[in-house]
Amino acid sequence: MTFASTAEKRAYTQELFIRLASRYEQVNRVISLGRMNAWRRAAADQAQLPPGGRVLDVAAGTGGLGRALARRWPGAQVVGVDLVPQMIAAGRAQDSDQAIRWAGGDALRLPFPDCTFDAVVNGFMLRNVVDVGATLAEQTRVVRPGGRVVCLEMTWPRNRLFRPFYSLYFSGLVPLIGWLLTGYRDAYIYLSRSVRAFRSPEKLADTMRRVGLEQVRYRLLMMGTVTLHVGTRGEQCG
């Protein structure tokens, strides 16, 4: 799917997540074949928080990754920021333990001072922003020196034998599943196309380095369909 401008993409994705908020977690579990929480646990583990540390989940959605962080790092302060009020409302409703402190905000202009957090994480959001580099630069800005930025993202698989089966599932079955569960088939057509069009793991790693992150590395999960990137802020604050 192509957009005439960055404003058009921003408006489309915001409206998309407004529509999906009430069924977001349910659909995620189904289309990930039950692996979503395992991927979130892997991302949470990479945050490497100190005792009583602070971690920010950017574009937190309904808080699935934030809750994984709270379970992995008891005593940590988990902050979830999202642009869509309906997502935050759904997240608060699911956050029975009040493990997450919620805030409204734009990933391109995070409402926090420099060097506020011991780690920043994002899950399946970079494909949806209008400027990946600027988004990662903001996450780097708000993490302390030595803190990590952790990115969990979907990836088009490299294996040529597996790729046709993945394409059939993701381009054919996923929109059907999405339509059956939410009534919005177009949202899951967009999902498939956005994954196919997104930058490779190597290029995303290069972007992370360009915004100032060091020791950038990644690993492929689920037969190369999900990638977990980690980078560390090296420069001092101020």
Task: Summarize this structure briefly.
This protein has helices at 6-20, 24-31, 36-46, 64-72, 85-94, 132-142, 163-182, 185-197, 201-210, and strands spanning 54-58, 77-82, 100-104, 117-123, 143-154, 213-221, 226-233. With 238 residues, the protein is of the alpha/beta class.
Class from helix and strand fractions: alpha/beta
> Which range best describes the helical content: under 10%, 10-25%, 25-40%, 40-55%, 55-70% or over 70%?
40-55%
Strands, total number: 7
Largest sheet: 7 strands, mixed
Rg measurement, Å: 17 Å
Write structural notes for this entry.
The chain is α/β, with parallel strands linked by helices and 238 residues long. Helix content is 45%, strand content 22%. It has a single domain, classed as Vaccinia Virus protein VP39 (Rossmann fold), CATH 3.40.50. It has a seven-stranded mixed beta sheet, with helices on both faces. Strand 1, helix 4 and strand 2 form a beta-alpha-beta unit. Helix 2 runs antiparallel to helix 7 (163-182) and helix 7 (163-182) runs antiparallel to helix 8. The longest helix is centred in the C-terminal third of the chain and has 20 residues, at 163-182. It is globular. The mean pLDDT is 91.
Which features would summarize this protein structure in a list?
Rossmann fold, 7-stranded mixed sheet, 9 helices
Q: Which helices and strands appear, and what pairs or packs with what?
A:
Elements lengths: L5 H15 L3 H8 L4 H11 L7 E5 L5 H9 L4 E6 L2 H10 L5 E5 L12 E7 L8 H11 E12 L8 H20 L2 H13 L3 H10 L2 E9 L4 E8 L5
